[in-house]
Design a protein that fits this description.
homotetramer, 350 residues, alpha/beta, Rossmann fold, Dihydrodipicolinate Reductase, domain 2, 6-stranded mixed beta sheet, 5-stranded parallel beta sheet, 12 helices, globular
Chain lengths: 350, 350, 350, 350
């Protein structure tokens, strides 16, 4: 086995950053070289700079790692994982890309940029081809590769096989989202205990614009958006981890619930074929019990990297409706970026 | 003021029954004559037969009332409120109607029967006209008048003014429902803490079939169903009281969100004109704050008898989408039956 | 009726400040003259400076009130209510007192100061006598009167009649406290959903030191601490409003649970005798049901101003144990300060 | 390695029964021979008789196992695990013991019987010696061995090393208990959402009487109760798994918090020395962070078999107070019985 690739984690002390660290601590392809947080954390040990919020081994075993500076010179690695907020992401991610790093970003800053792949490996691996156009366009040696908003990621995991098999004309998605999606400290308990909040800033817009790009066609220097109508209604509910999505779709040819179930159940994609370490063996679990999937009972399976579908039934308006469930901070954030890097690695990019 | 009308409450010890009792304890038109629960409760005092679960005055002040028999002879009153389950409702409600009582029922047993009004006073008061056909058809002196499923009730409170003003072609409704909708003991805490359950037995079917009847046209001996497509996706969430509904509608003429807001805000109906005691002054509250209505903060206003709408915005698929909120055990159950009786009384029926 | 006394609310936009405003909006003795929040809010209307978080009439009907400056010159009233944090309280409360105002403070800054009354009107009204010593000592025309920590307030409401009747030697109190006690945004939902947090900074210390002062004897220029051992164990639980306290006490003469219940049930104090507007008619409700009081079901009664006791039973170690419950942001904060001002007013001080 | 010992699980379809099955499905000493539930389940497959509520492999992989009869003839194995309710336990456990089985019971029926071991292997392994007296007294070939109430089990895990090292004179324990302790369906969500219930039937009595037996001295044909005062105050809180206990103790010699921490941290007992498969490597984890242990974050470690202690600090009344945490359905139920059986096996009894 060849030597592991050194990586940098930007935003390493936040909740997504911690999930990066936990997943990278014992990764077969990658090894942590630099952990970066805010300026005032530089020079501190990770255990002193970080309030560890996950279960399992504290600090991913990297508690004594000293935090590096926030500059591409001081903290360069050939592969970078970014758990930055939008503002810092806009500055730091291009700087690292320019310096030659392949940046796998969970931030929303560049998701809709024309030459930036918005990647879900099971869904649109060929979008990695945009990297060439991106390098050419910016004159960079490195590149930025993004993963989508958590709600959109979970959604396209179920839509991709349906779009490939039948063709999707319209999607209506109503979400019931976990509080962890807002980071830490995030949603105040006074707001959410015993409550439903029918508003998450910019969330509906992200789902509605990212989905057609995710399901779009790679056209060398841009993505042709998939021609479908997407409407999203997003809610926060008192759940810790995992987004539940009530989905209705209009599919070409009007397939039966049984055909839809079969398509989802049998779907395997490139990460499964390649056996990527973070890829779930089965990307979509189709449940038969009438009251499943349920977020608290189902979402942690497969390290949170598979999604769950149940209650596939006829919709008198659009044709098919079903329940969808996925892990917002793993499949929808930390696990997503790392799977992206694994795919890039398998394709010789990283 | 004329003498109050004596009433019987069937199923008086359950959670809806208790809400009936609390509302009837000091009602301007009605006075409790008989409280009826199960056979083994007959002869007991209400305080001994009933585990009182509401706040306010325990037992509605009727703790010493002795429970009557479950027969129409032993517990007859000219007006009857039924909080029975479907099974007992199927037997007892016709028996009381035959004996001459006007039965206002929260049960689902006869909601879709051809000559039974499925009544929401703000929405379809003229459906009370079915009582005549019902009496003729069965040869009864009394009659059965039902209120709809709680989720459907809340829904039609917002749909009725839109249907009257614009005409509705299609509705998609995704609900996030309170645990109180399942009665007591109802949903086990082990199932719902930190969870979303994407299934409530028969709930979607009820919403889909009751809505077109509720918005239908009175045609002497039956209701002509409103010609619209309704699709419902129902979920249980860890909320105590109040159903949140994410609603999308296709309206004729494609009105703007502002026109929809104006229509809802200005809507007043017969119960408001008549000043019925249980009717809210404003049936639909339209909220301007981007994150309202919220169930825990808004649902208890007006004794739970108004509904709340917010986030009225364009839907790329159906035209308009919004958040809707209402009280499932008041507007959707106990308060509903009592408002029905008040309307019947105002119209000279009760 | 004489003219109402003008009052200033410091910290008017926070959650306790909002409760002050709601209670003062229609108060028989007081009328709001100045609302004060942070510097950057000066000159704004209350509705624009404040995210209103309570139910009932928004902004207490004072939405158009323009916020005043934070100085005693610009915002002076003869009576001041302070919902400030400790830091600002340390500066502003003495400034207003020096300028002649009677400051009723919910802050902890001066609670243990020798000449500052730590007042619960039912418990130690005579401690108001300290005001004279305070004025003499500081050369102030006004004075500062504080109410205790919310957990201590609830505790002494049950301890006071027991101390007066039997004499208390030792108290052990284990609390299960609502999230509202931490203000807004306060406790992150990620921390408390489905969890118990066994630590609230400085809370145990406050209960242990404030209780003996509260139950102490007025000695002209100081309070003689009540000679009792108090130990507190404080926890945060996923409850919105209301602190539950498991209390064990060693009483002189070893009274029976029945004697303790009778003492608590029959207790009436000065605010009840004076009929102060915010005082509950019955200060301690003694529950007979074996599983009451319960915070969600009982705490909102009497505007949150009474406390609840149940399960009075023998303790093999200390003699008596019971469950105690009270409203942390009303009896323990906003309602407390206002009741203090009412007592001062009734005694001719305000 | 010798052949595995066949075992019977009584009450196999309940929540504790399911945890037995999950733990026994791949156990190094034991193999499931009979699963027994109610009479009407006899002859059904486990997957058809049981609503599986745990995560991990459904039915522990035993979904096709056919349920046996409830008689000691029909379902005999040399080792029996009982997850029965008290009523059935009183009949079936003696029948199996008489027939020669060693019955490891989670039921409360025989816990306080004079010759029945109330066993926690780390705490009182020598109590297994009672088996001989029990056999002699009843003329049985088999025997009944019980594990304590879940709350008491967690408590004695922390008390045992303190009692051995210093000697305990008095204990006050206030619990905040998970809903899973009430089984399924158990606590209604309407009762516990946003609430604290200050009453769990018989729970305080069990803790107060079982603790002195657990810490007592084996005296051949009975246990000499440990001479200490125990008082318990038990509460239900909206937590899924894990009991939090606020504990105060009076220890002989008045040791410091540091000495107590050291004693707990260094404690290892017989199951650790024997390396029993279900025993945690470290029985008591002592936490240093001021706000830990927290039930949702800490309780699932070590398969739920260790307990957690934090905030060891002086108590002005009893000397020492601390926070204690343990898993009620593993350390306090299923895992407890199985560890008991492992100890009995290691000592040549099973």
């Amino acid at each position: 086995m060849s030597a592991k690739i050194p990586v940098t984690v930007l935003g390493a002390t936040g909740v997504v950053g911690q999930r990066f660290v936990r997943r990278l601590a014992h990764h077969p392809f990658f090894v942590v070289q630099h952990l970066v947080a805010s300026e005032r954390s530089e020079g501190k040990r990770y255990r002193d700079a970080c309030a560890w919020r996950l279960d399992g081994e504290p600090y991913g075993g990297l508690g004594d790692h000293v935090l590096g500076p926030g500059s591409e010179e001081g903290s360069f690695s050939p592969v970078v994982f970014s758990a930055l907020d939008t503002g810092p992401a806009k500055e730091m991610e291009p700087a690292f890309a320019k310096a030659g790093a392949l940046v796998f970003s969970n931030a929303s800053a560049f998701r809709m940029a024309e030459t930036v792949p918005l990647l879900v490996p099971e869904v649109n691996g060929e979008h990695l081809g945009l990297v060439e156009a991106q390098r050419r366009h910016h004159g960079w040696k490195g590149a930025i590769v993004t993963n989508p908003n958590c709600t959109a990621t979970v959604l396209v995991m179920a839509l991709a096989p349906l779009h490939a098999t039948f063709g999707i004309e319209a999607v209506m998605m109503t979400s019931m989202q976990a509080v962890s999606g807002a980071g830490y400290p995030g949603v105040p308990s006074l707001d959410i205990l015993g409550n439903v909040i029918p508003f998450i800033r910019n969330e509906e817009e992200k789902v509605e614009e990212e989905t057609p790009k995710l399901l779009g066609r790679f056209a060398q220097d841009h993505i042709e958006m998939a021609p479908m109508v997407v409407t999203a209604l997003c809610h926060r509910v008192p759940v810790l981890e995992g987004h539940t999505e009530a989905v209705s779709v209009r599919l070409k040819g009007n397939p039966s619930p049984e055909e839809v179930a079969k398509t989802l159940r049998e779907w395997r994609a490139e990460p499964q074929a390649l056996g990527l370490p973070t890829a779930p063996r089965i990307p979509v679990h189709v449940h038969d019990l009438p009251d499943r999937p349920q977020v608290r009972k189902d979402v942690e399976g497969d390290g949170g990297m598979s999604v769950h579908v149940g209650r596939i039934r006829p919709c008198p308006l659009l044709g098919i409706k079903f329940t969808l469930l996925g892990h917002n901070t793993e499949r929808g954030a930390a696990g997503a970026s790392i799977l992206n890097a694994e795919l890039a690695h398998a394709k010789g990019l990283a």
